[in-house]
Write a structure and sequence with these properties.
There is one protein chain. A hairpin with a 6-residue loop joins strand 7 and strand 8. The chain has three domains: 3-242, Glutamine Phosphoribosylpyrophosphate, subunit 1, domain 1 (4-Layer Sandwich); 247-424, Glucose-6-phosphate isomerase like protein, domain 1 (Rossmann fold, 3-Layer(aba) Sandwich); 449-593, Rossmann fold (3-Layer(aba) Sandwich), CATH 3.40.50. The strands form five sheets. It has an eight-stranded antiparallel β-sheet, covered by helices on one side. Strands 5-6-7-8-12-13-14 form a seven-stranded antiparallel β-sheet. By secondary structure, it is of the alpha/beta class. The chain is 35% helix and 23% strand. It is globular, with a radius of gyration of 25 Å. The longest helix has 21 residues, at 401-421. It is built from 17 helices and 27 strands. The site of fructose -6-phosphate (F6R) has 15 residues, from helix 8 and helix 15.
């Protein structure tokens, strides 16, 4: 939440900052602003999407300079208007500050500053930080010292960047529980909420740890902890280039990212299976062979990926798996032991609820493993081990390709642990590996139904409510499909376990109610197929309009479905990866048919870095 970029170097800051903000806009789009030092410090900021700031900079240009900071906001304290937009000013307008996070004790510091004669213009907690750092700068005469003295006062989560008119060529940043990474250039340096901020200019990056302060100039980078001790930051190389974060000719990032679902699975598998054995560089399954319980902690779509993973890991590795929403896990005193493995799943690696769950799990003695899509992110750094998903940058706010990559990584984890603990059936495991390797090509064929799904969505543009039924691994897919419809198309959508239908939800069925049904394969060993076909008959008898996502050639479904979206023949654990794609496409197309912004749905931000 909130995107942050900082720059010092020979280029004009404005272009660097606006380019970086464009790639960070998925983090929040309530307002945007920049502060640039030329002869003096100047700021421009506007409520609304980045384009409104761009327009403002055309209407009311500022003198470009070589030092600057930029911000795109997801509002927490104060309405999303021009005044509450960042940067905020301190030291009589000479210091500019941008902030991501929440300063929990802002009221107490504000009272102190007001008593000191400081006048506030905004309703934000961030302006408090600007005035406090400004006051500390006047006292110390040094930006890094001013930051150090100020962060010692703050409670909560924050990434802060500051520039001061009297210190051109210097940007100082600090972080606690919110993200910040350094981009290393030649004669120039960058700071960003994530590498997307500067990937156009450099792929050499440094990760900044918790409670650290960084000072960049064109030729130097120095990092200290909040006590002032020097720290050596950890280097990493960005593995994707700027073009990966462009739309590349697609109508939206979401359309592009759905088209990349096959590649997300293939790239997450790449180099990790050798002769039927899962070998993940940097991950040692033997370290987890004694694990007797797994708890997946995650939020939203990532939690639904965890739920799919539960079915597979329990079957393959014979270990009980629970899936918990991160924000529930840490407040209920969970029973864990040193043989419990907490697996966090997060695309961004920055979701505050999940980060806090991981920290809590470590405090109470569990082992932690992160499944994450973002290099240099906080959650993997706070975990004992990491398996990266390689879905590439996901820019659309609603997660799609990361979801199938997360399921793939969870499957790899399940197979790896089963191979290490000896509880898995070798024949089943080798079939699972083989099925996974075949999945990307099958996904390609599902993508061919785009036109059919677009037509369906146009036909249903006025639909107010959609129900989705699934069973076994189809159940989490029903939940995921419903979440996408809520967040993209703003309609009421519910996912149900099909077996639960008669226990209540069937009361919702009335003539014309649209129900998607994810139909298990007729070859399903548990005979779930016939049970779900029975469910279809039950809802059809009550007037539902049924759209079945069913295996190609499934003749049993045809007489009862109004529409069938066929998916290719696959094993039961590959079916969810295939079945979710039509639901992703449908939610996107329905939103598009309603004229909505599919990449930046209202009220949301991609990386939820506040609790
Ligand atoms: C839904 C969506 C969210 C995220 C959730 C977790 O489309 O994108 O539900 O899945 O906020 O985010 P990460 O995976 O970054 O922890």
């Amino acid at each position: 939440m909130c995107g942050i970029v900082g720059y010092v170097g020979p280029r004009g800051s404005q272009e660097v900052l606006l380019g970086g903000l464009g790639r960070l806009e998925y983090r929040g789009y309530d307002s945007a602003g920049v502060a640039i030092i030329s002869d003096e410090l100047e700021t421009r900021k506007r409520a609304g999407k980045l384009q409104t700031l761009r327009d403002e900079l055309v209407a009311n240009p500022l003198d470009d300079g070589h030092t600057g900071i930029g911000h795109t906001r997801w509002a927490t304290h104060g309405a999303p208007n021009d005044v509450n937009a960042h940067p905020h000013l301190g030291d009589n307008g000479k210091l500019a500050l941008i902030h991501n996070g929440i300063i929990e004790n802002f009221a107490e510091i504000k009272a102190e500053l007001v008593a000191d004669g400081v006048e506030f213009v905004s309703e934000t907690d961030s302006e408090v930080a600007a005035h406090l750092v400004g006051r500390e700068y006047r006292r110390t005469g040094n930006l890094t010292e001013a930051m150090k003295a100020s962060v010692a006062r703050f409670d909560g989560a924050f990434t802060l960047l500051i520039v001061h008119e009297e210190s051109p060529g210097v940007v100082v940043g600090a972080r606690r529980n919110s993200p910040l990474v350094i981009g290393l250039g030649k004669g120039e340096n960058f700071l960003g909420s994530d590498v997307a901020a500067f990937v156009e200019y450099t792929s050499d990056a440094l990760a900044i740890g918790q409670d650290q302060i960084v000072t960049i100039t064109p030729d130097s980078v120095s990092v200290i902890d909040f006590d002032g001790n020097a720290v050596t930051p950890e280097p990493f190389t960005v593995t994707w280039d700027a073009s990966a974060a462009d739309k590349g000719g697609w109508s939206s990032f979401m359309a592009k990212e759905i088209s990349e679902e096959p590649a997300a699975v293939a790239d997450t598998l790449r180099g990790r299976v050798k002769d039927g054995v899962v070998e993940i560089p940097g991950f040692e399954p033997a370290d987890f062979a004694d694990v007797d319980r797994i708890i997946v902690v995650a939020c939203g779509t990532a939690a639904y990926a965890g739920l799919v993973g539960k079915y597979a890991i329990e079957k393959w590795a014979r270990i009980p798996v629970d899936v918990e929403l991160s924000h529930e896990f840490r407040y209920r005193e969970p029973v864990i032991s040193d043989r419990t493995l907490i697996v966090s799943v997060s695309q961004s690696g920055e979701t505050m609820d999940t980060l806090m769950a991981v920290k809590y799990a470590r405090e109470i003695g569990a082992r932690t493993l992160s499944i994450c899509n973002t290099q240099g992110a906080t959650i993997p750094r706070e975990s004992d081990a990491v398996i990266y998903t390689h879905a590439g940058p996901e820019v659309a706010v609603a997660s799609t390709k990361a979801f199938v990559a997360q399921i793939t990584a969870l499957y790899l984890l399940g197979i790896a642990i089963a191979q290490a603990n000896g509880k898995g059936d070798a024949r089943i495991l080798s079939a699972a590996v083989h099925d996974l390797e075949a999945a990307p090509a099958l996904l390609d064929t599902v993508l061919r139904h785009g036109e059919h799904i677009r037509t369906l969505a146009k036909w249903m543009a006025d639909t107010q409510a959609v129900l989705i039924l699934g069973r076994h691994v189809g159940f989490p897919i029903a939940l995921e499909g419903a979440l996408k419809l809520k967040e993209l198309a703003y309609i009421h959508a519910e996912g149900f376990a099909a077996g639960e239908l008669k226990h209540g939800p069937i009361a919702l069925i009335e003539p014309g109610q649209v129900v998607f049904v994810i139909v298990p394969s007729p070859r399903d060993p548990n005979s779930l197929h016939s049970k779900v076909v029975n469910n279809i008959q039950e809802i059809r008898a009550r007037g539902a309009r049924v759209i079945a996502i069913a295996e190609q050639g499934d003749a049993a479904v045809l007489p009862y479905a109004d529409e069938v979206i066929p998916i290719p023949l696959a094993s039961s654990f590959i079916e969810p990866i295939l079945a979710v794609v039509p639901l992703h496409m449908f939610a996107m197309e329905l939103a598009a048919a309603k004229g909505l912004d599919v990449d930046q749905p209202r009220n949301l931000a991609k990386s939820v870095t506040v609790e």
